[in-house]
Amino acid sequence: MMYASYIEMQLKVGKTAEAIEITEGMKPDITPMGIKQFIVIDKGDDNILAMAFYDTEEEQEAATPKAKELLGRLTELIAAPLERKRLKVPIVEPVL
Predict the structure, then answer these.
(1) What is the chain's percent helix, strand, coil content, to nearest 5?
(2) Of these four, 20, 54, 71, 76, which has the most CB atoms within 10 Å of its CB?
(3) Nearest CA among 34, 33, 31, 9 for reference residue 20
(4) Can you tell me the distance from the alpha carbon of 89 to that of 69, in angstroms, rounded to the nearest whole number?
(5) Domain count, the chain
(6) Is residue 22 part of a domain?
């Protein structure tokens, strides 16, 4: 089993590219957080979904303060309040 956190971000109009660029710049900060995989999905209409996957619930919990700090870098681009949701991922099977 793995654990995941996700955040849906409704951005201000026309801010998707800037948000993705800022998030791209966070890679050096994301790596030491215990994240095994980080995905950003452009859902269109200035809405993006960020997902982070962890091996353990403890790693996920430990990442919370740093995740809040990193999200703070996007504050000026966000149109609606953010909520980091946490999930269990019972099946993880790479398909080749």
Answers:
(1) 35, 35, 30
(2) 54
(3) 9
(4) 25
(5) 1
(6) yes
Is residue 96 situated within a structural domain? no
- Asked whether residue 85 is assigned to any structural domain, the reply reads yes
11, β-bridge pairs = 78
Please indicate, yes or no, if residue 8 is contained in any of the structural domains.
yes
Give the CATH number of the domain where residue 85 resides.
Answer: 3.30.70.100
Please indicate, yes or no, whether the overall pTM of this predicted structure exceeds 0.85: yes
- Structural domain range at position 63: 2-89
Q: Which long-range contacts (CB under 8 A, 24 or more apart) does 77-80 make?
A: 77/11, 77/12, 77/15, 77/18, 77/19, 77/22, 78/9, 78/10, 78/11, 78/12, 79/10, 79/11, 79/12, 79/13, 79/46, 80/9, 80/10
